[in-house]
Amino acid sequence: MTRPNLQTESGRIVGDNQNSITAGKRGPTLLQDVYLIEKLAHFNRERTPERVVHAKGSGAFGELTVTADITRYTKAKIFSEIGKKTPMFARFSTVGGERGSADTVRDPRGFALKFYTEEGNWDLVGNNTPVFFIRDAIKFPDFIHTQKRNPQTNLKDPKMVWDFFSQSPESLHQVLILFSDRGIPLSHRFMHGFSSHTYSMINAAGDIHYVKWHFLSQQGIKNLKAEEAEKLAGSNPDHYQEDLFSSIEKGDFPKWKVAIQIMTPEQARNQRLNPFDVTKVWYHKEFPLMEVGFFELNKNPENYFQDVEQAAFSPANTIPGLYFSPDKMLQGRLFAYADTQRYRLGINATQIPVNRPRCSVHGYYRDGTMRVDGNGGDAVNYEPNSDPSSPFENASYKEPPIAIDGEGGHYDRYEDSGNDNYEQPGKLYRLMKEDEKARLVSNLVASLGAPSVPNAIKEKQIELFRRCDADLGKRLADSLL
Q1: Which residues lie in Polar residues bias regions (predicted)?
Q2: Given this model, what pLDDT does residue 64 score?
Q3: Which residue, 88, 131, 243, 367, has fewest beta-carbon neighbours within 10 Å?
Q4: Mean pLDDT of all residues in the chain?
């Protein structure tokens, strides 16, 4: 039986649904990839009013304190001096479940931070894992569909999950983390956070350095075993929400140490593994953690809907001195996150108090639903203009150019040897203690062994695990086949 052609909404046949169009194998995504834009824009509008992902979350206000000098890497004023404090808001969440789902499901946790700086809002939108399941944003709608509900039964479907994973070997690193002990934290307070993506820093001289952000829980790492999590899901499905709120309410303020890894552009060019692949970590031996500061959450929201549900984050929200990288997943998220908030909360979502910058903002945007700030009054709404009091561009704030090398086209994500899918998952498995390995295998067997998952998918997935580590593959084969 011949399979029908995949087509765009206008009927054009899609030539590549696996790889977005990029400038070179590792280059940034091109806006001319209209199918990618259509796919992400349609995906962002599939559900309303709750978030498409990260629907259930908890949040609190706090403060970032700088404890180390990193001005040699960035001109961002938030890091201009040791001891500087910046107000912030944090939101933690599960990824795949709905607003009413249980907190203690096996799922990555969102780790979203908004810093209210004097230069505008800076958002760092990451997870409690240093890597992700996919490396190209064109696969994000497909991946999330597998984490949601079967369109016929409206039930979570292990077959969908493992059918996708077994054909996406780049997911192996994240899958092993998800099914390890760290797959279910004890609460939001007892987990690390990561930018996951590679970003860049720009200093006063215009020099670029690539950076990964780490947020290390000062409460330590504590996790739930599968049976403990299942029991809590029934007895207290809002365990995480209750834990965060009550700890802050009684003055037990959670803290996270802020640290970075730094890589020069020359080092990035010479890396054996692609440093812009979000399914990879940078080895700490080569790129050690550098302390930046810490943040503390010390104030609960006055109203959950007002501050947590209406909180809108986007990695596109940066400030001078903090910038992007050619990371393909990040490039897609720069569009998708801002776009989904415009759809979910409206074009004027930044006027909501939790999203509003604490600095003055001048621009020419007008109208739209829920415009409540005077709409610019009688000021001109176009530029260039001859009004000396109107806002004007400042060329000194242009970011320096980032080198791009390669022709625009679809590049197979498996052609680049720097995108190796098996090395780091294998190393992660071999770092585990024997009891951790046993629990990992047990967790994988419980999910992959579901009756709905055909043997063909099981065999394909086991072979991927075997390529990571022969022992892991054998244990799973012995239990499942």
Answers
A1: 384-393
A2: 98
A3: 367
A4: 94
Give the lowest-confidence range in 197-201, 283-287, 381-385. 381-385
14-61 per-position pLDDT tens digit: 889 899 999 999 889 998 888 899 888 888 877 657 788 888 999 999
Beta strands in 264-401 (DSSP E): 290-299, 322-323
Q: What length does the chain have? A: 481
Identity at 347, one-letter amino acid code: I
Give the pLDDT confidence of 304-348 residue by residue, as tens digits: 999 999 999 999 999 999 999 999 999 999 999 999 999 999 889
d(CA 244, CA 253): 9
Question: How far apart (Å, rounded) are the C-alpha atoms in residues 434 and 64?
Answer: 38
Decide: helix, strand or coil at residue 458.
helix
Domain boundaries, the chain: 21-174+185-356, 422-481
- 394 counts as catalytic: no
Q: Which of 19, 44, 54, 239 is catalytic?
A: 54
pTM of the model: 0.92
Position 298 scores a pLDDT of: 98
Which residue is catalytic, options 19, 44, 121, 127? 127
Q: What is the dihedral of CA 340, 53, 259, 279, to 10 degrees?
A: -100
What's the rounded Cα separation, in Å, for the pair 376 and 374?
6
CATH of domain 21-174+185-356: 2.40.180.10
Task: Please confirm, yes or no, whether 54 is among the known catalytic residues.
Answer: yes
* 414 in a labelled binding site: no
